[in-house]
Amino acid sequence: MIFLAAKEFKQIIAMISGTSSAQIVTLLFSPLLTRLYKPEHFGQVGVFLAITAVLIPIAALTLPMAIVLAKNTVEAKEVSLLSLVIAFVSSLVFLVVIVFNIEFISQSLNINTDSDGYYLYWVPVAVFLAAMLQIADNWVIRMQLFTLKAKATLIHSCIINGLKLSIGFLYPSAMVLIVIAIVNPLINTLLLLFVGKVKVLLLTFSTSGHSVTEKHQAVTLFNWKSLLKKHRDFPLFQSPQALLNALSQASPVVVFATLFGSTAAGFYSFSCAMLAVPIVLLGKAVGDVFFGKIATEVNNQNYVYVKKLFFQSTCILILIGLVPLSVVIFLGPELFSFIFGESWTEAGVYAQWLSLWTFFVLINSPSLKLIITFKKQKQSLIINAITTPLRLTALVVGGYVYQSEIVALFAFVVVGIGHNIAIITLAYRSVNKFCDK
Fold first, then answer.
1. Which pTM value belongs to this model?
2. Which residues are CB-neighbours of 189 under 8 A, at least 6 positions away?
3. Where does residue 209 rank: exposed (0-12), middle (13-18), buried (19+ CB within 10 A)?
């Protein structure tokens, strides 16, 4: 058995401890929030988040991920600035589209424009703020400031849940949750900048602290065309792949809201949010540490060590995920009813099926990072191009033909599991191919 190096192990523990603490805060607040807000409130904010999730991969073309892979600090800064500019322009385009198509979008999503549909105008703002968070997050990974990020994550969770609870006591509504969802990435970014001591904005626009050579590079190297060419895999393959993945994950919320109402969408959104507590976010913690390490090792062509890290990280996530998976499968409805109230029992049924899918989302986190590092986004895009229509078909068959949320959910989960297995297989073959050279 090959063990992780002490440094990587400590980084993973730091990220997991910070993430776990933040999610414990979320769990402690959730029973109070579910007694203030109704399922339909969670359904409406779920639709808003689904829209933003679909637009985020287009906004900055996933270029912030190239910050980690940049050869030097100057290039990383240039990628940051380019990402900001693209995200800003994209957000303006989104705003224009929404303004001129507000009625069509609202009718398609079953949104009442007279009462609450105006929140759609804030979608571009949320998308741009999310792009800023991506930039800050990838600087954290590049600089390997995982302990400080863990602290920022905990503080962020306290702030967001505190806002939901305090404002909810006075005015419990969907709009409260939507406004908090809009400022959520901004708060997270500011915490990474100041609590995490990652001065991304200063790094992006300043050349102070560089050597003479680096200062010269800052003036002459910044060429957006050459940057896009060098990192073309992100806009060409990673961004469409992220878009397809976002579409597949957002589609159940939209389908449930359209066919079965905002309450069903609320059950789905809330169960996904609760499953993200022990599963998805833990995978991000391990994946971020893994990504930062393998980017360095691949640059050094140390492929055998990358393969070892890949296997170890995946095994760690399997062990982590088995416990919450087992609990939710056997006790989902009872657990949700006891903790969140009887009105949320149905969400526990949703969670039983969704936990099977999110378990594979958890364990494929290192695979996704490996695919990016080895520039296998094209193959990954093909997988997404195949599975996304299948997921949509599964939802349509279950929703329109069988008129059942559970049938639609089951079919969606089955296709989702197959998708993640294909991604893990692609990652394994990719690293194996380099090791055999």
1. 0.76
2. 129, 132, 133, 136
3. exposed
Q: What is the CB neighbour count within 10 angstroms for residue 102?
A: 16
Residue 55 · residue 321 · CB < 8 Å:
no
* Cβ atoms of 54 and 98 closer than 8 Å: no
Among 7-21, 146-160, 225-239, which is the least confidently predicted range?
7-21
Give per-residue burial for 283-297: e unless 16+ CB within 10 Å, then b.
bbbbbbbbbbbbbeb
Identify the band that residue 144 occupies on the pLDDT scale cut at 50, 70 and 90.
confident
As a whole number, mean pLDDT of residues 286-304 equals 71
The amino acid occupying position 314 is T
Tokens of 309: 């890290």
Backbone dihedral region for residue 261 (phi beyond 0: left; psi -120 to 50: alpha; all else: beta): left
Long-range pairs, 295-298, Cβ under 8 A, ≥24: 295/68, 295/69, 295/373, 298/373, 298/374
Q: Please tell me the distance from the alpha carbon of residue 100 to that of residue 115, in angstroms, as a whole number.
A: 19
Contact 102, 33 (CB under 8 A): no
Tell me how far apart the alpha carbons of residues 50 and 251 are, in angstroms, rounded to a whole number: 8
pLDDT at 183 over 90: yes
Contacts of 276 (CB under 8 A, 6+ apart): 358
Contacts of 94 (CB under 8 A, 6+ apart): 55, 59, 123, 124, 127
Residue 267 placed within a domain:
yes
Cβ atoms of 370 and 61 closer than 8 Å: no
How much is the mean pLDDT over the chain? 82
Number of domains in the chain: 1
* Residue 417, number of CB atoms within 10 A of its CB: 15
Please choose, from the candidates 278, 277, 291, 286, the residue with its C-alpha nearest in 3D space to the C-alpha of residue 313: 286
Helix (H) or strand (E) holding 201: helix 200-205
CB 265 within 8 A of CB 272: no
Instruction: Establish if 419 belongs to a structural domain.
Output: yes
Q: State both tokens at 146.
A: 């995982």
pLDDT of 240-291, one tens digit each?
888 888 888 788 888 888 888 888 889 998 998 888 776 656 666 666 666 6
370 and 433 Cβ atoms separated by less than 8 Å: no
Residue 1 lies in a domain: no
> Quick check: is 75 in a domain?
yes
Which amino acid makes up residue 44? Q
Cβ–Cβ under 8 Å, residues 283 and 361: yes
Neighbouring residues of 133: CB distance < 8 A, sequence distance ≥ 6: 185, 186, 188, 189, 192
The residue segments making up the domain with residue 277 are 6-435
